[in-house]
Design a protein that fits this description.
Length: about 230
Amino acid sequence: MDPIDLFQNPLRRWNKANGGKVRPRVPVKQLHPRDRRRMRRHFLDLDAGDRLLRFGSALSDEQIERYVGAIDFSRDIVFGVYNRVFRLVAVGHLAFAARDASKAAVTDKARVAEFGVSVSRSARGIGIGAKLFGRAAIHCRNNDVDTLYMHCLSSNQTMMHIARKAGMEIRRAYGEADAYLKLPPADPASVMQEALDEQFATLDYTFKANKKAARKWLARLTWRMPKKK
């Protein structure tokens, strides 16, 4: 069965996957405070099981509200994926923190980065989680962070798959898992790649936003037009 087409617009590029299948290119865009409302909606739409896997506990709606409201966009980086109807279907949160004693064995840099991701059920199965992880990794490289860290439940098969595919060192204990990935330093290619990825995602974002606005305008225009007798 072919994957769901979530990204049907003129900027779309199809890539061949194993077995001759094709998958849409996934535009991963950096999010900003203006996207907070859509982030809130994305997290609130997660069911109890998905919230457990994403946060390590089944957060209530009120706790979700507090989490989204507390995200500091001046310190952390948040990435997102919008579907073809301009709905946020995936969020990757890259949180930076000072290195503490527990991380001293894996890095001598001043900061480490922790990554968490969630993908809506309607958008799973086309590699969006891995794309968000890749975007987070290249951002870390270009900002002098050499260790990307993930903490999750050992039962979180999606995160474990991402970790194994990325070659992360995984340590399990008491039903939880810590995964570390050592990153190479930045180079001209990594800097250019991040800039191109963001440029593509911004064009895609603008297309989808304008398309949604045009639909709303046409709907209002149609509603106001007098009916023929």
